[in-house]
Amino acid sequence: MKIDLDKAKQEENLETMTFAMQKTLPLPRLSTNMIYYKRQLWLYNCGIYAGKLRESTFNIWIEGEAGRGAQEVGSRLRTYFLTNLLKSIEHVILWSDSCGGQNRNIKMVLIIKCVLEELKQLKSTRLRFLVSGHSFLQNDIDFGDVECVIKKQNKIFSPKDYMDIMNTCRKKRAITVLKMEKGGFLSTNKLEKKIVNRKKTANNEKIKEHQTSKKLNFF
Question: What PANTHER family does its record include (predicted)?
Fold first, then answer.
């Protein structure tokens, strides 16, 4: 991963990005013990880090507006591609952990293929996954900076309170924070009906997890 991040700084037409979901954040967050016996809302945060410009972006939404699966993560990546990707970029490398529910599945593949069709400047996109047990991403540094500040807060009542903390948690390389709306997420249901997602090999053997590649390439 470090090699790919370094390449992005050197090669004009290459961007390397990492993405991850932060652990859920409670609403409200209070210091009293009574809160542990109450039903709380959860705030979700999908972090995206762009290696070329060393920029971090947080995309937050509330439980009930959307889930925290592959469609939501893929939707945030698609929006980032369409709005933030430099015009000179022709190749993108995406790094994440190997979580099957969020990153390594057919839904993510379909969304990335849609992005390739929408952005004619892109010639290739590569999805790469860290090996389990060695899944430390740049996003984890960003999440750590935020959580250090959160621990010092006695009361957090709203998404805006979290956004203010995220915006000001560090002086250098400030994090861009975006509040997502319910209509800002894609569904891959129609796309999935148009393809055959094979679960078995040509020899009628079940495809096992360890048989799948750690890299997925799209051209």
Answer: DNA-DIRECTED RNA POLYMERASES I, II, AND III SUBUNIT RPABC2 (PTHR10773), PTHR10773:SF19
What pLDDT, in 10s, does the model give residues 2-11?
899 999 999 9
185-200 b/e with 16+ CB inside 10 Å = b? bbebeebeeeeeeeee
Domain boundaries, the chain: 2-218
Distance between CA atoms of 214 and 201, rounded to whole angstroms?
18
Q: How far apart are the first and last CA of the chain?
A: 20
User: Do 58 and 93 form a contact (C-beta atoms < 8 A)?
Assistant: no
Q: Cβ distance 48 to 17 under 8 Å?
A: yes
Instruction: Give the CA diameter of the chain.
Output: 59
Q: Which two tokens stand for residue 215?
A: 């890299």
pTM of the model: 0.89
Beta carbons within 8 Å of 197's beta carbon, 6+ residues apart:
106
Gap between the Cα atoms of 197 and 191, Å rounded: 11
Give the span between the Cα atoms of 192 and 163, in whole angstroms. Answer: 35
